[in-house]
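ARCHIVE CARD
CATEGORY: sequence design from structure
SOURCE FIELD: tokenized fold
FIELD CONTENT:
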């Protein structure tokens, strides 16, 4: 059974509250950091440049396993476009997440027909608000696991 508001004023007040809900300011977290990292990875898996753009901060930084860095949203988007063209079957499979403040530590593996890109990997995602400020890919080594506070394999 549906109930009705006690008065028209109650109904108007409820609607006004919804309409006036403020948009979160930059850096304000609405979504859990691990969820943001998972959405970012989904955009990678689906080669979704628009999704990546939405989830990247303007000062986004990508760091590969060799320490190579690409800085800035536009430069990172261009790098992802080239990567997707070269490796259309690339994807990451995450097996676990842990969050330490704004940093999400991720364990999993990459899958790709290019053997150099396939295998166990670790990632860290620095989340500011609901955006990824840094996406860092790490080799899954005992040293890296220790550095990231992960148990040994």
């Amino acid at each position: 059974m549906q109930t009705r508001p006690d008065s028209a004023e109650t109904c108007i007040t409820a609607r006004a509250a919804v309409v006036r809900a403020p948009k979160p300011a930059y850096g304000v977290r609405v979504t859990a950091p691990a969820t943001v990292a998972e959405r970012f990875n989904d955009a990678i898996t689906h080669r979704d440049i628009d999704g990546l753009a939405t989830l990247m901060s303007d000062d986004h930084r990508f760091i590969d396993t060799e320490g190579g860095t690409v800085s800035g949203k536009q430069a990172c988007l261009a790098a992802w476009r080239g990567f997707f063209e070269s490796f259309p079957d690339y994807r990451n499979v995450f097996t676990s997440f842990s969050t330490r403040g704004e940093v999400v530590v991720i364990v999993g593996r990459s899958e790709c027909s290019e053997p150099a890109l396939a295998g166990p990997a670790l990632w860290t995602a620095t989340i500011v608000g609901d955006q990824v400020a840094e996406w860092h890919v790490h080799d899954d080594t005992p040293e890296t696991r220790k550095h990231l506070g992960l148990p040994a394999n």
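CARD ANNOTATION: The chain has one domain: 29-147. The beta strands are 56-63, 69-71, 91-100, 103-111, 119-128, 131-139.
SHELF: design records, drawer C
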